[in-house]
Amino acid sequence: MKGFEADFSYLDIKERIGYFSVFGGFKDLSSLHDYENLDQNILYNILHRYDELKNRFCYSGDINLQKDLDTLLFRIAVGDRKSHSIYKNDITQPRGKELYKFLFEKQIINKEYSREKRPPRVPGQSLKKELRRYKAEDKILFCDNFTRFWFTFINPNRDKIEKGELFEVLKLIKEELDKFISFTFETLSNELIKKSFQKEKITQAGSYWNKEIELDLLAKTRSGALIAGECKWKNQRISKNILNKLQKKCELANFRVDYFALFSKSGFSNELLKMKNDALLLYELKDFGVLI
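Below the sequence we write its predicted structure tokens.
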């Protein structure tokens, strides 16, 4: 959580994750100390400063190009992040590729590469029709959290902000903020597993997706051991049901998983706590302290 170390020691770990989710990449972090909590900082450091901040997100003087960039970035921010999901009638594939190239070169977005392996070819057998057409897609990431926040909440509500309806926009943000933070929590969970796993060095970590399943975390150790994980930023404890669903996903993907890891904002059920062992790793908020 770069930028949220010593100067923000008065915040607990849950608050730091919230601040980092919104203000990671914000250029004026010192101004965050002037207000009591995250809601006030969103109101006074973003909504009230809209006219000052908006030029940072104006990437082109070409009105049509900027309009397409705004559309693409909004779809990345609120969608499934798969690279082809932004292509619709208003953004064709050739146009989308131009926009992606522009944003990659500006270091506004980055790419998370798919780790899905295509099914092996069997001599004399052809792939099913749906598999022949299927192509694994990479996912698109914002290079900083504040830009993702802007295109999730601020740019889509610019008309309301310009009319002065700031508290209405703040209400909309608060209703969806936990969902927004959950993606950052997933990213931080992948960083935590690399720092805290004691058995051996982890060489790969990140989310995993294929045609049938998505995993918040799939890590691999130097020896090839697999760790599969689920991350929950919710105001309720994780129950055994979440572990069962994770295990079923891994069975569907034919993964031989050596360790299951669960990451929770609100802790775990007594049943899960009793099950904890070397192969079931349970991470609570306090464990994220190693990241700061």
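The domain at 184-291 is CATH 3.40.1350.10 (Trna Endonuclease; Chain: A, domain 1).
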